[in-house]
Amino acid sequence: MDALTLAQFAVYFALLALLAAPLGRYLADVYEGRARRAQRLLGPFERRIYRLAGASADEEMSWRRYALSLLVFNLAGALAVYLLQRWQGALPLNPAGLPAVNPAIAFNTAVSFATNTNWQSYGGETTMSHFTQMAALTVQNFLSAATGMAVAVALARGFVRRGAETLGSFWVDLVRGTLYVLLPLSLLCAGLLVSQGVVQSGRSELRAALVEPLADAPMQAIAIGPVASQVAIKQLGTNGGGYYNTNSAHPLENPTPLSNLVQVLAILLLPAAFCFAFGRLVGSRRHGWMLFAAMTALLVPLLLAGAAAERAGNPALDGLGLDQSAGNMEGKEVRFGVPGSALWAAATTAASNGSVNSMHDSFTPLGGLAPLWLIQLGEVVFGGVGSGLYGMLMFVVVAVFIAGLMVGRTPELLGKKLEAYEMKMASLVILAPSAAVLVGTAVAVSLQQAAAAAPNPGPHGFTEILYAYSSAANNNGSAFAGLDATSTFYALSLGLCMLVGRYWVIVPVLALAGSLARKKIVPPSAGTLPTDTPLFVLMLVGVVVLVGALTFFPALALGPIAEHLRLSAGAGGAP
């Protein structure tokens, strides 16, 4: 690993910490109604939205009503996205005359965007009209992100409240997250991207003369559209995907090193800020720093491992006398190189983002293992907006309980006793996505037609299928592009995994929050285990790694590890 690469990574994490800490303070103020300056500007819009929706800023909901409101709202959003795709041919703003999307892909896409996954089994610029991109997909980018943020805030209230039956209002949390956080940040980010040359247009294409014109095609059609506005929220909301099929590897979606830095910072900005927001919401800033430190401690080693594997090049080519001084450059943009590609791959899979600026399918086996395992850890290494925070807090609950059993300390977290019910809910959150990954992969490799969709033989084809189900069940959305996931089987099975990975997590989290809100706060005593110390950070990191290793190591051994051993032994076959 050269010094320039390490310096690039160090600058990135320094900028992330510098931006996330003050943004976390602002997030806490927004959800507690203390963002006075923003309220003076946007308060009238907020109150008008409540009047139109028939909601109240003072409304309070039990966890069951909060969960029901969330599920109904998300179901309505998914249905709207599905219908807009099916009616696309008859809708306005369709200058390219794109037809309706077929039912299976429309279902998969609707579920994908409603669950904040943004898995795309289609080419964006050749499948979705401008109206569908804006009215269906971009709208869900805002609302699905705001949903995850709302659940994280509701869980924080569960720790703070005592003897309470309510967690706040889903509608208020949804509106405030969208109006005060996502919209302003997206406008700022979109402006920066447009200044760097990211396209923002209502036209469907530009026509350019070829350097060497062909007799039957003297001009080339270049797809354009409202790109910058969608890219901004897809990154900030950890939605992922892209306007173009190649995502942020496309020069019109990510044209310069500065646009690349803005986007890769945006991926982790809000997830990191939510660590600090949580510390302020529960009245313990040290806990916010504890969460940030644990997530960083998990991300950095996997980032370095992935970058080192890509920097070393393809072991199958070592004996051919080829110059691999630049590392494994297959599937990467020369302008970003190995460092920029490895950093993006780690960030997008640590968060539940899924956008790419290089092709993960072209990574070396060990280089691809790092982002794959980051997904399989549960998207808790910063994770999605809000969802990464409440996912990591479930691991905190497990770590506190295990530590209490080991040393005879009382299992308490922020003054709330953790009992059997809380452990059951936390276990559901951790186990449900893992089960969806393993069961989905097992079924796919057992069916001849489904397995044939991964044309690469042996371990690499298995990894492509494993990656797809890992990505869907953990609401990531990135893919090993060698897998053809356009069939009805993959569209439906991956869609079901997305639903499990989103709502089988959210409902137990809210149930746990409701249970905590009813408990009284117990004053700390000599038997209380401190949960804001470096020692507990190490304990938490160990629990996350052990759960990931015990759950997925056998599958990883059959996939990327076996492929690496084959290449190193000279069995051949490019990654």
Task: Walk me through this protein's architecture.
Strand 3 (412-413) and strand 4 form a beta hairpin. The protein is built from 18 helices and 4 strands. The two termini are 21 Å apart. Helix 10 (285-312) runs parallel beside helix 18. The protein has a two-stranded antiparallel sheet with strand order 1-2. Residues 571-575 have low confidence and may be disordered. The protein has helices spanning 3-31, 36-53, 63-86, 103-114, 124-127, 130-160, 170-195, 227-236, 257-281, 285-312, 337-350, 365-376, 387-407, 420-446, 448-451, 459-473, 488-518, 534-568; strands at 205-209, 219-223, 412-413, 416-417. The longest helix is centred in the C-terminal third of the chain and has 35 residues, at 534-568. By secondary structure, it is mostly helical. It folds into 2 domains: 21-209 and 220-273, no CATH class; 286-568, no CATH class.
Provide a compact summary of the structure:
The protein has 575 residues and is mainly α.
List keywords for this structure.
two-stranded antiparallel sheet, single chain, 575 residues
How are the SSEs ordered, and which strands pair?
Layout: H1 3-31, H2 36-53, H3 63-86, H4 103-114, H5 124-127, H6 130-160, H7 170-195, E1 205-209, E2 219-223, H8 227-236, H9 257-281, H10 285-312, H11 337-350, H12 365-376, H13 387-407, E3 412-413, E4 416-417, H14 420-446, H15 448-451, H16 459-473, H17 488-518, H18 534-568
Antiparallel strand pairs: 1-2, 3-4
Pairing-aware structural class of the strands and helices? Answer: mainly alpha
Order of strands in the sheet with most strands: 1-2
User: Strand portion, in percent?
Assistant: under 5%
Count of folded domains? 2
The radius of gyration over CA amounts to 23 Å
